[in-house]
TrEMBL record:
PANTHER family: CLARIN, CLARIN-1. One of its GO terms (biological process) is equilibrioception. This is Clarin 1. The keyword Transmembrane helix applies. GO terms for cellular component: ciliary transition zone; membrane; presynapse; stereocilium bundle. Belongs to the clarin family.
Amino acid sequence: MPNRQKKIIFSVAGVLSFACVLVVAAAMGTQFWVQGNVLCTTGAQLVNATGQELDKFVGRFNYGLFQGQTVKQCGLGGRPFRFSFFPNLVEVIPASLHVTVLFFCGVLILFSSVATGFFMYNAFGSPYETLHGPLGLYFWNFICCFCSCLVMILFASEVKLHRLSDSIANFKEGTFVYKTYTEHFDHSFWLIFLTFLVHGLNILLIRVAGIQFPFQKAKELDVNTGAADLMY
């Protein structure tokens, strides 16, 4: 492939990687990772609410990695409550798992920035040095894909397996008991999945530019070395 086309491909991939940096940073600052509804089971059981009456006991919530808000309803109107994970909810959430999610989000931002630099270096610098060439391009994008997968898996396990929404809804509640009624991941969570897809696209762009996968080259070298050994 001509050098001009390679420069264009690497430049496009670099812009996509930098967009991932901005997207992940923006997603971390929002409170739209999870949203849903919460049911006041205590109030609903007291009046034996069913059908449309149950709506008077259903509130809503949404939260992100740092903060969120709930509107609790127990038959007497909405009761809004804003919270932050640190330091308010440290005692009721799986704090180590939550910090791990934040850590890998930071790692994803860092490695996406590094991948951006490597793409731009290969577009306008010396493209075939060891870590600045094919190995570096594939290496950092594979790491970004891996980190984005870890962020989604760890956060999903925190929400579903550790019942994070229930813990938030029942924070500092002594009389009423709340239970998650509906729950789904919001758009900020799916932005991490978009980041995974973008880095996967970058890997394909590297291949389109005519650069073989590193392990393919290693196999070819092994075959050639073995043939040479047999000859001598």
